[in-house]
Amino acid sequence: MTARLRIIGGTVHDPANGIDGEVRDICIDDGHIVASLPDGAPTLDARGMIVMPGGVDIHSHLASSSCNHARRLLPEEHLADPMTAPSLANGDSLPRSGTGGTVPTTFTSGYRYAGLGYTTVFDAAVAPVMARHSHAELEDTPCVDGGFFALMGNDEYLLRQIAAGERERARDYAAWLLGSTGAYAIKIVNPGGVEAWKSGQRNLSGVDDVLTTHGVTPRAILETLADAANQLGLPHPVHIHCNNLGQPGNVAVTLASMQALAGRRAHFTHVQFHSYGGPGWSSGAAPIIEYVNTHPELSIDVGQVMFGPATTITADGPVEYLLQKSSGRRWVNIDIELETGCGIVPFVYKDKAAVNALQWAIGLELFLLSRDPWRVVLSTDHPNGGSFLSYPALIQLLMDRSVRDDKLKQVKPKLLAGSALADGLSREYTLNEIAIITRAGPARLLGLRQKGHLGPGADADVTLYARNADIAEMFATPRYVIKGGSLVVEEGQLRRAPTGRRLHVRPGYDDALLPDLKRYFDAHSTVAFENYPVQGIPDAPMPTSS
Amino acid sequence: MSIIARLKEPLRQRVDLSEVLVGSWTTLSASELSARPVYLERDGSASLGDLFALDGRPRGSIRFVGQLDQADRLGAGLSEGEVMVDGSVGREAGLAQAGGRLDIGGNAGPRAGAALPGFKRGMTGGELIVRGSAGAEAGAAMRRGLIVILKAAGDRTGLGMIAGTVVVFGAVGADTGLWSKRGSVVALGKVTPPPTYFYACTYQPAYLRLLLTRLRSSYGLPVQPRHLNGFYRRYSGDMAELGKGEILAWTSK
Amino acid sequence: MSAGQQVAHVTCLGCGCGCDDVNITVRDGRIVDAIPACPVGRAWFGDGSVPWEVLLAGKPATLEQALAEAASILSKPGGRQLVYLGPDITSQVQRVAVALADLLGAAVDSATSDAAAGGLLAAQRRGRATATLGEIRNRGDVLLFWGVDPDHRYPRFLSRYALEPVGTQVPNGRAGRFVIAVNIGADKGPAGADLTITLEPSEEIAALSLMRAAVLDHPARDPSPNVAAAIGMIGRLTSARYAVLIHDAEPTAVPRNSLRVDGLIALAQALNGPTRAALSSLRGGGNRAGAESVLTWQTGYPFAVDYSRGSPRYAPGDRGLDRLIRGAFTAALVLGSPGLDGEAAAALGGIETVAIGPGASQAPFVTRVAIDTGTAGIHEAGTAYRMDEVPLSLRPPLTTQRSAVQTLEALLDAVRAKQAGRSA
Q: Model confidence over B79-113: pLDDT tens digits?
């Protein structure tokens, strides 16, 4: 632990504070950024280095029961990527070995995220009944502050409230569920579609399709939970994975979902997977990004596809059913406790596969046509579009047109007609824009006021990169990473692995909910109402503004 | 003289040889190969040279001499060169072999040329010859390549094959070819196809004649005129899976 | 005589059902009643009395002495250690145990039976289609019991999860569910099924294969009459709204065909074309699924992990207990109830063994160090995983005199200190 540290002479990119490549000192005291330090404080020479806030991953899958089912499915990847325990500083936490691949073990995930300069990560999809499991995995994921989003878009109790027009009770339930599970935000995956899959209707593909078991539409689910998140004053608005992921023509339901929210604040996730024209395959990126550009209440993460191995892990059961049908690969489906689902199919994106090339191009189109980097942020939906380890290569594609154009020549062009990328997009992201889409933007969208910037009071999460003409290498190998004031990476080596902070919320709700909820649990749940809430969640909940 | 590895003393415990011939090895000298790791069940890590005396020059092949029944995973992941073994080997010989030739003079234990349990792919290339008998599940989950077994093969030979070819001169055990997706099991001896294979036709597969002729000339295998000129009953399966595999059973008429 | 203290919503780990609705009555520090526990549950709780001894070479010692000796045994240079995870420990204990194994470079084995391990391996190769017990309770309208009657070893499975409850999609409870029993040799399905099929053990794999072929609409040869009857029930399964296949993942007295679970996984997956289906695997008591879960997130593999080469290696064909019997280890750490007997117990007695867990002092093998602790869910709080891998919170009705997790953490610290001292 470094109580005090002055990082001197680095070129600072701190877009939240309007600093774009200025040489200035950053001072750290007791885990936070401070305006100044007394003379004689220890220093870190950052001359020639680029200084940014620690990375913030708004959408990853790294610490959930679903990830663990995926890990179990991938012995080949683990065998090919063994990881011995790092040499941590004397007296630090117990260094742990592990295995990697697209779904690394928890310790390896923590070490590798830190090794990439990331200090905050969210798991985007946790079944509420499995929350206890995610907390345990997060405890074993060092170096990063973390939390998770609770899956609600197919929850039986919630669907019943929506069907009954009880939207306030739905909101109270959402609040109870967040607090009981120690979640950070409300997640919707394929609203109503997962329940359709489980109840025999197979799927829902439009916002006004009716879930026959409940008489509820995706539109009503989206409205109810967007309102709940906003009325509860959650730091992050509702986080939405739309209906019909991965299907040609899904641009229609994606746009309809955005329109359905009619001015409500919301975050749409891995939008690349939801931007396909149809009925054949084509790019639908342009209308989507145009809608986002002109609607400041909306934000997205891209969900870029990177060529190479991936593992698709989602609560969207029907999507994985279709993917295993078309790919013939191993398939896991787990229906979870009147709450949600889980589907897993390992996958490889190939540049010679026309659909994969289109997916790759659509993601880049979304990035390159975005007019507001604060609302269009980086993700690969790790490990769905590719591992988080591919972020540096993605950053290079965004910053260097020549690298992008070279890659474009290698991909199968069959489906790229009509994509703006094939027509030539000259934009190159600046370092400042990269700092926005990988730290400042996600932190702001997540409502993390102490993260994503280097102003006084911020958490001392700082990444220092040695300048390098090879952008991918530069971002892959930070020289120093500081997490909460602790020097996690020194001279490119992982040296400390502090336990991260748990990020969660506990919004208030009307107690009148509880008798009805208990009756529901007694009738249908296999876990007692009294045993359902997770006890002993570390760290205080984040404030909500309601 | 190519490299010869002579067992110094009889093995008194199981030894894992899975890392001896992985990656590039054919250009390594005897002393370099001697340094490759092996794992003794009771005594822990050792090097190949602790167990074997290695002589000769790198010429793309290695010959193992000695009683190796307790030596497991010999030739695992093999991707190049020729490996000859004078006697019998333990289990999982040629595990997930990717290329090259592994020629075992005696018997092989279970899961020769197979995948590690729980792994999706066994052998993905190369040729594995067992001049004696093979244990259960030879070629399980194999994806490509050729396995030839001169005497009997155990139960579940070719279990869950994805593709590739297994030729068995002797009798094969129960559930041969069970749950294969594609691939061929050629049974020159006795075989009972699983009920999810069904009889398609009796014919003389041209490719098989070529294959057997090559096996006779390259390996000196005892391919008989009746094998070359005979007829084969083709069973298609496994219908519980893709159904694109086959069992070719030699028939006297 | 006092009325006793009531502890409600206690989770029972008597079998893998993990019923968390048990009301325990405690009087004078003893469990005197457990309602509505079944016979398996009542046997699990007993009266809750366990020994609280600390033994060094069979003689009473202080905890400090015992831990110092345990640390020195386990960290002997050149030693090869086995860490064995017994069934009745919390996941908190499992996590520390795996950390210790990592530190020592030890092999890890667990109470995952070979039968259950076969299911894990098959699921690695194929994936699987399954569901948590709440989904089965609320949706399952056709239930196929493949060679198992849960009444015997999982007594409340039928009343809580699979047969009798009124479900959100099965409003008529038992009357709304069609039950198929498949008897395979000695492995019988439940009595009172709506349809019973009988197979010879030799017909089992053929039946599973042909049933799957029928679901896939692939052609097949003429089956035996028994197998034809099995194929005949496919229509029942495909016309289900949500079919559930139930089998026993734990070993039974008569060894079964090791391909059974593989065939069931494949059948359940295929049924998800024409309808929805899930395979439910019945698991034994304690926290078996928890060990698999912890091992998976810390090593990538669910069982049979070996740290001896510096990072986790998967050795499913070389289980730790088999290697123990062959003399592969110099020391062992056995956690949880020391229920190992036969050749394994003899082998443990022949090396330096440390036992930490409920009843360690009464282990059926010779220990160098034995430290009694409480039992998960009876004396110790924490997490245990149900057979369907849902994590449950444990609400112990009794207090522990020596916590397993704290004891193990102290041992981990002692080993770290020893290693640090050695390298300094």
A: 999 999 999 999 999 999 999 999 999 999 999 99
Distance in angstroms (rounded) separating the CA atoms of residues C118 and C319 = 12
CB A52 within 8 A of CB A462: yes
Residue B199, classed as helix, strand or coil, is: strand
Contact in structure between A218 and A243 (CB atoms under 8 Å): yes
Name which of C318, C349, C316, C315 is nearest C332 in CA terms. Answer: C349
CB nearest C300 (choices: A78, A84, A335): A78
* Pair of tokens at residue B183: 């691939």
Q: Edge-to-edge strand order for the sheet containing B127-130? A: B52-55, B3-7, B61-65, B82-85, B101-104, B127-130, B146-149, B165-168, B184-187, B245-251, B231-237, B198-203
- pLDDT tops 70 at residue A462: yes
Neighbours of A287 (CB within 10 A): 15
Beta strands in A473-533 (DSSP E): 480-483, 486-490, 493-494
pLDDT at C422 over 90: no
What is the Cα–Cα distance from C269 to A328, expressed in whole angstroms?
Answer: 12
Helices (H) and strands (E) in chain A, counts: 18, 26
Is residue A410 packed enough to be buried (19+ CB in 10 Å), middle (13-18) or exposed (0-12)? exposed
Q: Where are the beta strands (DSSP E) in C102-172?
A: 107-110, 127-131, 142-146
Residues in Cβ contact with C381 at an 8 Å cutoff, skipping those fewer than 6 apart: C90, C393, C394, C395, C396
Give residue A8's pLDDT. Answer: 97
**ipTM, two decimals:** 0.97
Q: Spell out where A84-152 has E strands.
A: 98-99, 118-126, 145-151
Give the pLDDT mean for B181-207: 96
Write the DSSP assignment of B201-232 as a string of letters: EEE--HHHHHHHHHHHHHH-----HHHHHSEE
Contact partners, residue A268, CB within 8 Å, separation at least 6: A240, A242, A254, A257, A258, A274, A292, A298, A299, A300
Cβ atoms of C311 and A83 within 8 Å: the answer is yes
User: Could you count the other beta carbons within 10 Å of the beta carbon of residue B102?
Assistant: 28
A-chain residues near C137 (CB < 8 A): 524, 526
Whole-angstrom distance, CA of residue C371 vs CA of residue C362: 10
Q: Examine the pLDDT at A1 and tell me if it is beyond 50.
A: no
In the block, tokens 């020195």 appear at: C72
Which residues, listed in sequence order, are joined to residue B38 by a DSSP beta bridge?
B46
Q: Which residues of C fall below an 8 Å CB-CB distance to B? A: 78, 80, 120-121, 124-125, 205-206, 208-210, 212-213, 216, 218-221, 223, 227, 259, 262, 266, 308-309, 314, 316-317, 323, 326-328
